[in-house]
Specification:
alpha/beta, Rossmann fold, 7-stranded parallel sheet, 17 helices, elongated
Length: 407
């Protein structure tokens, strides 16, 4: 079986879960072809990502002009199919939040991708995220490409489902993957009951090499770590406010913000204005080994997210035997159990966040270690990458089997 993956940007520092999934599928015996819209020139910090880049073909790397010839070839070779695909692109653009011409650019990308898929002998096309990659995959199928599917993570898809044409994509896909039960429930909202059976839960998985380390006792120092992009939805500004409140009450705390992003300047300015500079450190983007080291050097992971899918870093921290202080939004409560392997608090509530952080910092090391062991067991039983990849491989085989029977 030859499966093609399509991602908007690949590889990417914050998309290591896609890389893990692809490599696990290859261990299952599948051949996986990597395609992306962009990502050929972005900064990378991980050697594995650099190897993935070398195996990826990029739809826009040669510029928009390179899309013209594939469009003409599709128009001449299959005018009726091209007309139907163009009509679909037009319908997708009518109520979208992106201008109509952008959707015809997606059609042009689909024309180019179709040729690459045929050259590769791809039997299935899978897109990550229900945004533009899913639309390009859908248009590729409309042009005569293989069966297709896509994975929905959230929260972006759930913020603007109609603008993204999510119902149309759900109806036309061979199947859809949701990364949590919560994500599945949100997809149910936007498609008729007749299509519910094609929505399957496949969790993001953990690479055993990441957590196959000896148990490290939680440190005595009052350090917490937050791993993630510095952006509005991750709630780092609220986290700083909570840390400031704890410091004013005389609670000793160290905080590491591991990541980078569009809000870094604002975050660093807020650290300075609150007088937290001696106690808060921003690392910038770091590789997987450094992420692991930062998690192991902390008593717990803290994540103050306002909106999420199911953060991979939560499962990573739990697999490394660290409890998690986080919000009960989206799929997080499916993994984190309050009082057993972490602390859950209402999103946006700075007092509740400060109280949860203080409770974590006051927890005796032996209790913290027991919570970490519980976290480790739960993460591994739900998020083993090879188990989850096997579920996905079985789904990839279904459309091909149905096509063979129909033939």
């Amino acid at each position: 079986m030859v499966v093609a993956y399509l991602v908007n940007q690949y590889p990417k520092v914050s998309h290591t879960f896609i890389r893990r999934e692809i490599l696990a599928l290859e261990r299952q015996g599948l051949t996986v072809q990597r395609f992306a819209v962009r990502g050929w020139d972005g900064p990378l910090v991980d050697d594995e990502d650099r190897r993935e880049r070398a195996q990826t073909r990029y739809l826009l790397q040669d510029g928009a002009a390179a899309l013209l010839l594939p469009v003409l070839q599709r128009l001449v070779a299959a005018p009726a199919r091209f007309a139907r695909a163009a009509a679909l692109a037009w319908r997708m653009g009518r109520r979208a939040d992106r201008p109509l011409p952008v959707h015809f650019v997606y059609l042009a990308q689909a024309c180019r991708l179709l040729g690459w898929l045929r050259d590769a002998g791809a039997t299935h096309l899978h897109a990550h995220f229900g945004t533009n990659p899913a639309e390009v995959a859908m248009l590729t199928h409309a042009l005569g490409g293989p069966p297709w599917s896509f994975t929905v993570h959230g929260p972006e898809e759930f913020d603007r489902p109609r603008f993204l044409g999510l119902p149309e994509k759900l109806r036309r896909a061979a199947f859809v993957v949701a990364i949590s039960s919560f994500a599945r429930s949100q997809l149910y909202r936007w498609v008729e009951h007749a299509h519910w059976a094609k929505v399957h839960v496949v969790h993001c998985g953990l690479d055993r090499g990441f957590h196959a380390v000896a148990a490290v006792p939680p440190p005595t120092r009052p350090r917490l770590v937050c791993v993630g992009r510095l952006c509005e939805q991750k709630g780092q500004l609220l986290l700083l406010q909570a840390a400031h409140a704890l410091r004013r009450r005389g609670v000793d705390i160290e905080l590491v913000l591991a990541g980078d992003g569009e809000m870094r300047a604002e975050v660093e300015s807020r650290i300075a204005s609150l007088g937290l500079a001696p106690r808060v450190r921003v690392t910038g983007w770091i590789d997987e080994a450094q992420v692991r080291d930062e998690i192991l050097a902390a008593r717990a992971l803290v994540l103050a997210s306002f909106a999420e899918g199911l953060p991979v870093v939560v499962m990573e921290a739990m697999a490394l035997r660290r409890p998690v202080v986080t919000t009960y939004v989206a799929g997080i409560p499916e993994l984190v159990r309050d009082g057993e392997n972490g602390w859950l608090f209402p999103a946006g509530d700075v007092d509740a966040l400060a109280a949860a952080m203080e409770a974590c910092l006051a927890t005796p090391p032996d209790r913290l270690a027991r919570m970490g062991e519980a976290a480790h067991r739960r993460a591994l039983e739900r998020h083993d990458i090879d188990t989850e990849a096997a579920k996905l491989a079985a789904l990839f085989g279904q459309p091909a089997a149905k096509a063979a029977l129909a033939a």
